[in-house]
Design brief:
By secondary structure, this protein is an alpha/beta fold. It folds into 5 domains: 7-128, Response regulator (Rossmann fold); 148-246, 2-Layer Sandwich (Beta-Lactamase); 268-376, Beta-Lactamase (2-Layer Sandwich); 413-547, Reverse transcriptase/Diguanylate cyclase domain (Alpha-Beta Plaits, 2-Layer Sandwich), CATH 3.30.70.270; 561-727 and 797-813, TIM Barrel. Helix content is 44%, strand content 25%. α21 runs parallel beside α23 (694-707). Residues 332-384 form the PAC domain.
Length: 818
Amino acid sequence: MSLKQITIYIEEFDHNFYHRLLGDIKSIDSCHVHSFRSILDIIPGTIQESAVFLFWNDPKVLEKQKFIFEQFPESPYILLSVTSLTPAELERAAHPTYLHLSEPTYSIGILDLILNFAERLIEDMNRSIAYDKIREKVVVLQNVFEESLDILMQIDPGTKQIINANKQAVVVLEYSLEEIVGKEFSFFMPPVEIDEDEEFEGNLIESTALQTKSGNLIPTESSFRLFPVNGKMAIWATFRDITDRKRSQEQVKNQKAFYEFILDNLDSDIAVLNSNYQYEYSNPVFLSNKDMRKWLYKKTDVELAEKLELPAEFYEKRKKYLDLAAKDNEIVQFEELIQDSNDKVTYLLRKYIPTDDAESNQKRFISFGVDITERKLSEERISYLAYYDALTGLSNRTLFIDHANQALKNHKSTETLLAFYFFDIDNFKFINDSLGHTKGDILLQMVGARLKRVMTEVDTVARFGGDEFAILKVDVLNKSAAAEFAQKILDILSQPFHIMGRDLFTTISMGIALSPNDGVSTSELLKNSDMAMYKAKELGRNNFKFYTNELILRSEKRLYIENSLRKAIQNEELILFFQPKISTVTNQVCGAEALIRWKHPERGWVPPVEFIPVAEDSGIIERIGDWVLEEACRLKQEWKHQDLPSFPVSINVSGKQLARANWSHRVQSTILQFNILPEEIELELTESSIMENPEKSIEAFEYLADLGIKVSIDDFGTGYSSLSYLKKINADVLKIDRSFVIDLELNEDDRAICKAIINMAHSLGMEVIAEGVENSVQRDLLHDLGCHMIQGYLYSKPLPAEDFVTFVKNFNESAKTK
């Protein structure tokens, strides 16, 4: 056999005919043979070119035939059989050329004949594919030639006559294709002096033109290349219409003259420098002397400074910003001060605008200068007012933020931190209201003076307004160093201030945020230090607190609660519960405390400890307080019709409500609206809420006392109230806080405190109630000490209105029977 290089893929079959075939094929030196358990196991992409497949006529023969047609359409296959194949079987499964081998008729000669035939099939297929590819390329080239927007011609190199032209040539030149073909191409274009040897080497010949049938000249760019056509060499001539470019060039020329006229008449100085920082243009404002402008051409700022006798910093500063504009390829802006020989001072705002010159492929710089002398003088006059606090002389918020932004931008060290301190004076409002605004201002001035004494030159201390202060410290070594400085501030501000003949003691609450750990922007760091300050206040004031991730989570939770709480009022999610008060004398229900509860549609019951502080801080507590008063009065009205004994319902009052000018009148109108007797309502407030605005509290409760409404002081003994204010309010009831009751039977100190509170209340003619009573021992001790009323889980937890009514009826009835 003398086959060329082909690769045979044969399907395995446990039969003597398979082994005979395999042996005969392997005897062919030029063949590569691969055997497979099944032809269907062949992975596409692993088959070499010039492949011939041999597979057996079995139940899967059509599946194998389909596989070969789909995956290897260019490869022939030979159908194998151990028996003779019928015409029907060949028609159904054999190759379209009926290539097959069967054992009854097999011989090595037939094998050689069939393999040679398969090889010729492969060669014919490859030639056909190659021909199709060439034909596709020809079609593409024909389409490119015909559809090009450039004028294309094929020219005979010997005669210089046009052999062919595309559609664009017919359209632009206004000749038909028949009129163009056969003419020398020079008929359509003026003669051009070119080297004939270079004509066909692809050189671009500029400033040529084509003449149309109507006599119009079309400026073009042209190129000529030599290439074969139908076995002969031909010239491919390309002409590109550059009419628009010529028109644009003329427009640019006119525009240049126009813009130079504008630049020469601007009030600002304009100059153009090349990539070597040499001047190529300057307008009269830049240099008023015409001769000087001529002299400046191709000169630098170094030579200009020498000519005008300006200091070296003049050209050094300009070069610095020119280098920056060149490096970043961005506009740079800076201010410069120029003092001439007559000591005239001029402030200029200068911009360097980098541009790329497309023609010269070089960078240029437009120098644009605006005289800002008047503005600078005005800025200097108002700078102090704009950037400094008028009262303390410290930086104000604007200057602090500016310094902070610069510090964050310039801080490159990874070994040091930037520390933001934010603090205010504890209870400053009380100080201001009690001592007067004049003394309050003096206190702020003295605080500012003390802060200045401990600041370095690179630190910034600012008053943000009111009693809020901020400090920025740079290059803080670590968190420990930041804490030491914070403690130093706390110490110096805790020393007494001597104001108008008296010593005033103050404390502060401070929050600290460190960059980059706690933020990378001024707004973020201020927000986080402010958040940390409020955490310090929660922990008892007169301390500092670092920002932590926990605080942001608390803040997000607080915001979620605040938003949900606003909807809760609208969606009627708030409910009143009531906890009974029991008389130690009659053992009957003698009152109840109205307690608000919130059932969130998604979270379920939200603890009051979560939402009441949020309501206080956000001001929502005022709306909630109004709702509680109305709902309690409405239920009180209902209970009248349910034969419930008459007793007062105590309603908690917020300090925010007390601050409202018309609050006491709103209480009065609500009672009248629901036809409730004044003695059926008791207003319960804490010591701290009274002390938020003691004067208004006294005024409001004097008015309500005249109406007959009772006043109860909640959590007595846990706040910091003055007994003089307590006397002025003329409260009716003192409530002993649960913290003194919880260990009453075990702790002698708690018993002593409870006894003192009860005795004081008796001496002032007040009733006493103890909350948080959980066992009978506590009840009996309080009874023996003279406590009038008991409230706590010993009797009942807070109950919904319906359950409370049931409890009152059952409890009073059972008490009667004892």
